[in-house]
Amino acid sequence: MTKQIERHAIVVVGGGPAGLAAAIAAYEAGEHDVIILERDTKLGGILNQCIHNGFGLHTFKEELTGPEYAARYEQRANELCIERRLGTMVVDISADRVVTAVSAEAGITRMQAGAVVLAMGCRERPRGGLATPGYRPAGIFSAGTAQRLVNIEGQLPGREVVILGSGDIGLIMARRMTLEGAHVACVAEIMPYSGGLKRNIVQCLDDFGIPLLLSHTVVDIEGRDRVEAVTIAEVDDHLRPIPGTEVRYPCDTLMLSVGLLPENELSREAGVEISPVTRGPVVDESLQTSIPGVFACGNVLHVHDLVDYVSEEASAAGAQAARFVTEGFEAKGSRGIPVTATDGVRYTVPSFIDPSRMDKLLTVRFRVANEYRDRYVSVYLDDERIQHRKKRVMAPGEMEQVVLKRSDLEARPNLANITIKLEEE
C-alpha cells in the first residue's frame, strides 16, 4: 500500500547550525508548519564534536564550545515545538519540491513542501583527491574523523603525527592531539598561505611550538600495514615538488586537512545550478537557488569560517522561505542584477540581486584568491564606484563582506551589473 504524501509548508534538510537557525527564523517569521530532517540521531551537526571554545562571539557576545552553541539553538527550537525527525536520510528532492526521505522507523516518506531549505553542510576532501604516492596503510585520517575519534569516541588515533593541510580543523587538531599527549611534528601546507583563521594559527600552532611549513606537501608515504614515515618537500610556484628539499618525518599518523566540499549531491539531482567556484548552489538576494522555492544556506552554500555567519545566513534563508510560502515570488525572465567577482575576489554570495526583493541592507559575502595587504575592497554599480574601503590584511581562509543599500540600487533603474573587486589605490 502506497503511503499518502505528507504536506509541510517548509522542509529543512539538515539539523546542524544552519538547519536549526533556518527553521527557527521561518517559525518566527510566521510560518509554523516547519519540519527538520536530520540523518544523525541528534541535532547540532558537526558542532557536537567541536568541544573547543571560540564559537558565539558574534551571535551571543561570549565564547562557547560547539555543543554549547548548538544547544542554544536546539533549546529555542524546543521552545517553539518545531518538529524534527532524527535518523532520517533525505534521498531525493524533486524540482517541484517533493522531498523523499527514509528512516528505520517510518520507512520511505514523501513530503510535498511549500519551500525547501538546503542545510546539509559540507564534507572533508578525501585523500583520493590528492596526488600522494604510496600505499594505503592504516594511520591516515581526515582531520574531522580524528576529531570525532578523540572528542566523541575517546580514542587517540596515534602518537607521532604529521598534518597535511592547514584548514581550521587541522589546526585545531594539532593542538588537540598535543594536549592528549601526542607529538605533532609539523603542519604542511601546499599553498603559500594558510587555509585557516589567523587566530587558530596563533592559538593552535604558535602557542605549542608546532611549525607551519607553507609551500610544502607530502611526496611519499612509507608503510604497508601502518604509516611509518612521510616525506615532505617544498613546492615551486606551480605546486611541483622541488628536488633536493625532501625531509623525512617518522610518524604513525598522517592527518589530512585539505579542504571542505559542500554536500550537494541532492542539490545536483534536483537540478539546482551549482557554482564551479564554491561547489555550492548559485543563489539570489533571497538565498533562493535556481529552483523557485528551494533555498540554500550555511556550508552547503559555501564553506564558512565562523559558525556565527552560518547562523546569520541561515536565519535569512529561513525568513525568506517563509516569505515565499506566504507571498510567493513572482516569476521573472531575469533572476536579477548579476554580481561580478573579479581582481582578487574569487566569488560572491549572492550571485544575483533583485532590488525589489532585497531588504534595506544586504550583506554580500566573499573570499579573496590570495593573501593581500593594504588593498581596497571596491564596489561598482556599472562604472560608478560607490564603496572603497581599505583592508590591511586579507587571506583566503577568512570571509570578507560588503553591505549594499537597496536605495543605491533602486536609484539606478537601468543598472546592469554589480562588481566587487580589490584595488591597490
Give a concise summary.
The chain is an alpha/beta fold and 425 residues long. It has helices at residues 17-28, 66-79, 143-151, 168-179, 198-205, 265-270, 307-327, 406-410, and strands at 6-13, 34-37, 83-85, 88-93, 98-103, 107-118, 122-124, 140-142, 160-164, 183-189, 212-214, 216-222, 229-234, 247-250, 253-256, 260-262, 294-296, 337-341, 345-349, 352-353, 361-368, 372-381, 384-394, 400-405, 418-423.
Task: Outline the structure in words.
With 425 residues, this protein is of the alpha/beta class. It has three domains: 1-124 and 259-331, FAD/NAD(P)-binding domain; 126-258, FAD/NAD(P)-binding domain (3-Layer(bba) Sandwich); 334-425, Immunoglobulin-like (Sandwich), CATH 2.60.40. It is built from eight helices and 25 strands. The protein has helices spanning 17-28, 66-79, 143-151, 168-179, 198-205, 265-270, 307-327, 406-410; strands at residues 6-13, 34-37, 83-85, 88-93, 98-103, 107-118, 122-124, 140-142, 160-164, 183-189, 212-214, 216-222, 229-234, 247-250, 253-256, 260-262, 294-296, 337-341, 345-349, 352-353, 361-368, 372-381, 384-394, 400-405, 418-423. The strands form six sheets. Strands 1, 2, 3, 4, 5, 6 and 17 form a seven-stranded mixed β-sheet that branches. It has a five-stranded parallel β-sheet with strand order 8-15-9-10-11. Helix 1 (17-28) packs parallel to helix 2 (66-79), helix 1 packs parallel to helix 7 and helix 4 (168-179) packs parallel to helix 5. The termini are far apart.
